[in-house]
Specification:
The chain contains three helices and seven strands, in the order E-H-E-H-E-E-E-E-H-E. It has 130 residues and is an alpha/beta fold.
Length: 130
C-alpha cells in the first residue's frame, strides 16, 4: 500500500493567503482522530519563513509539521508546504522540490492535487478554500 494503512484517506487542502481563517475554522471542527492525513498547500510569500504550522497547531491537537522531503504520510497529522516549494505525493511519501515554474505562473496546489490523485487514487480527497 501507499501509506501506513490501506484505509487512510489523504486530504489535500489548497488555500490562498486569504484562506488562512477558513483553514483555522476547518481544523477547529475536524476531529483529531479522523484517521485522515492532511496536506496543506498555501500560496505563501517565498521570501518569508512560514508560521503556518504554528498557526494551524493552535487549531488542532493533531501533530502539525512543515514538510521535509521524504516524510512518510501518517494518519491524524497535518503537513504544511514550505514557502517557495512544490510538493508531490509519491509512494506514500511527501517529496519537496524547487518550483519548476516562476512565481506567477506556478500553481503548487495543482502539483499536489495531480500527484495526490495519481498516488492515492480512491483515498484522495481535495479541498480548495478561499
Amino acid at each position: 500500500t501507499n501509506v501506513e494503512s490501506p484505509t487512510i484517506s489523504v486530504v489535500g487542502i489548497g488555500a490562498s493567503a486569504g484562506g488562512i481563517e477558513a483553514l483555522g475554522r476547518f481544523f477547529d471542527a475536524m476531529p483529531a482522530d479522523s484517521g485522515c492525513a492532511f496536506v496543506v498547500v498555501l500560496h505563501l510569500d517565498p521570501k518569508h519563513e512560514s508560521e503556518m504550522a504554528r498557526v494551524l497547531a493552535s487549531h488542532t491537537t493533531m501533530q502539525v509539521a512543515q514538510v521535509v522531503d521524504g516524510m512518510r504520510i501518517v494518519s491524524d497529522r497535518v503537513y504544511v508546504i514550505a514557502p517557495d516549494t512544490d510538493l508531490k505525493i509519491s509512494d506514500g511519501g511527501l517529496h519537496v522540490s524547487r518550483p519548476a515554474e516562476v512565481r506567477g505562473n506556478r500553481h503548487p496546489v495543482d502539483v499536489l492535487f495531480r500527484s495526490l490523485a495519481s498516488d492515492q487514487r480512491k483515498r484522495a480527497i481535495a479541498i480548495v478554500l478561499s
